[in-house]
Hints:
Layout: H1 8-22, H2 34-38, H3 44-47, H4 55-73, H5 77-96, H6 109-127, H7 130-149, H8 164-180, E1 190-194, E2 200-204
Antiparallel strand pairs: 1-2
Helix pairs in contact: 1-4, 4-6, 5-6, 5-8, 6-7, 6-8
Amino acid sequence: xxxxxxxxxxxxxxxxxxxxxxxxxxxxxxxxxxxxxxxxxxxxxxxxxxxxxxxxxxxxxxxxxxxxxxxxxxxxxxxxxxxxxxxxxxxxxxxxxxxxxxxxxxxxxxxxxxxxxxxxxxxxxxxxxxxxxxxxxxxxxxxxxxxxxxxxxxxxxxxxxxxxxxxxxxxxxxxxxxxxxxxxxxxxxxxxxxxxxxxxxxxxx
Length: 205
C-alpha cells in the first residue's frame, strides 16, 4: 500500500525556490561560482542550485520539483532528502572540477535529474510498469541530445544551458540507487497476504 503522506517537504522546497527568485537582493551573491567558493563563499555551493535566471527557468524547475518530489516523498521523505543531497553533491562536484570552467551557474535542473532516476526506481519497484522504461529512455535521449547540441529541448532561458549538469545529476541518481537498492533504506513495495478466511492484509517486504 502506498504511503499517501502529504508532500510537505516538496511544498517547502517549492516555496524556497519561489522566495529566492523574488528576494530583493543582488542574486549574483547566490549563484554558484567556483572561484568565489574557493575564496570562502561556501554558501554558493548550495544556494546556486536553488536560484534561477528568469521566470521560465523557475517555472520549469518548480514543475519538475513538484512532480518528482511528490512521487518520492509519498514513498519516503527520508529518501527525498537523501536524493536531494546526493544530487547537490554530484552536480557541485562537476561544477568545481576543471571540466566546467563556468563563471556562474544556477538552477535545480541538474539535481532534478537525480530525483528523476530515484523516482523512476521507486515506481519500478512498486509497479514494474513498462511506461517507466520508456520515460527513462526518453530522459536519457533528451540529455544526450542536449549535450551534443549544446541547447535545451524544453527551456530557452536567458543563460546558455549547461547540459553536463544534467549528466552529473543522472550519475548521482545511478550512484544513489546502486548504493541504496540492497541496503533496505529504500522502501520495499507492499505485498498482499491472503488469510484463510479470505481477508487480505498488506505487509511490506
